[in-house]
Every structure is written in C-alpha cells, then in structure tokens.
C-alpha cells in the first residue's frame, strides 16, 4: 500500500479550524483597536470632501468626548487627526455639553483657524 501524503490545508483550513471563542476575541480586539485608529483616516477624508463633518462628528462623538477629559489624550487625538489633513484645510468639531463647550480642530500646521 502506498501512503498518500496528507494535505496541510493552507491558511483557509487554519482559519476554518478556529473556535468560536477565538473569533469572538479577535472581533473584540479588532473593534477596540479599529474604532479609535479609524478616526485619523476619517478626518483626512473629511478634509478632502469625501465625508461630511456632521457624519464623522456624530460617529466619533463618544471617543472625542471621552478624550476631552484628558489633555494628553486630547493632544494625541488632535495629532493623529491632523496628520493627514492638507495644508489649506481644517476640520472642526464642536460639542456642547452641560458642563462645557468642547472644540476639536484638526489642521496640518497645528495652528487653529478662527472659529
């Protein structure tokens, strides 16, 4: 009798063999990392006219309001959002809460424009 070589399956076989727990964990990690990291590209595309500011502001409202409480997080978010904005453009988000008015302005130069 001849021994037939066993198929190794490849990457699709490996993906199909993962458990439900693996996929739930991988999905949770992707959402936790993907949501804040997608803020930068969303602002860059907004500055180029692909998205309306109101849509991006609504989608990222929880993230922006939570980072407004910490100065270092706020600066990091403004740096990440401003990184891909063209020199002559600015994206401004304005939030009013019961406690304060919060403004996030994303410009390439880092200098705010007049509101």
Indicate the topology.
Elements: H1 10-16, H2 20-37, H3 39-47, H4 53-59, H5 61-67, H6 71-82, E1 90-96, E2 101-107
Antiparallel strand pairs: 1-2
Helix pairs in contact: 3-6
- Gross geometry: elongated
pLDDT averaged over residues:
88
Physical arrangement of strands within the biggest beta sheet:
1-2
Task: Enumerate the spans where pLDDT stays under 50 for 5 or more consecutive residues.
Answer: none
CA-atom Rg in angstroms: 21 Å
What's the end-to-end separation, in Å? 82 Å
The assigned structural class equals alpha+beta
Q: What pattern of helices and strands is seen along the backbone?
A: HHHHHHEE
Oligomer: single chain
How many helices? The count is 6
* Share of residues in strands: 5-15%
Total strands: the figure is 2
Write a concise synopsis of the structure shown.
Helix content is 52%, strand content 12%. It has 115 residues and is an alpha+beta fold.
How would you describe the overall organization of this protein?
The protein has a domain at 39-115. The longest helix has 18 residues, at 20-37. The model has no long low-confidence stretch (mean pLDDT 88). Helix 3 packs across helix 6 (71-82). The protein has helices spanning 10-16, 20-37, 39-47, 53-59, 61-67, 71-82, and strands at residues 90-96, 101-107. The protein is elongated. A two-stranded antiparallel ribbon has the order 1-2. The chain is an alpha+beta fold and 115 residues long. It has six helices and two strands; from the N terminus they run H-H-H-H-H-H-E-E.
């Amino acid at each position: 009798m001849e021994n037939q070589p066993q198929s190794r399956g490849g990457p699709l076989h490996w993906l199909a063999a993962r458990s439900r727990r693996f996929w739930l964990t991988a999905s949770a990690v992707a959402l936790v990392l993907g949501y804040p990291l997608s803020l930068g590209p969303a602002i860059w595309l907004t500055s180029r006219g692909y998205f309306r500011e109101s849509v991006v502001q609504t989608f990222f409202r929880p993230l922006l309001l939570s980072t407004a409480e910490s100065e270092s997080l706020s600066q990091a978010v403004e740096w990440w959002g401003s990184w891909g904005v063209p020199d002559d453009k600015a994206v401004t988000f304005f939030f009013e809460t019961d406690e304060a008015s919060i403004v996030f302005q994303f410009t390439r130069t880092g200098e705010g424009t007049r509101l």
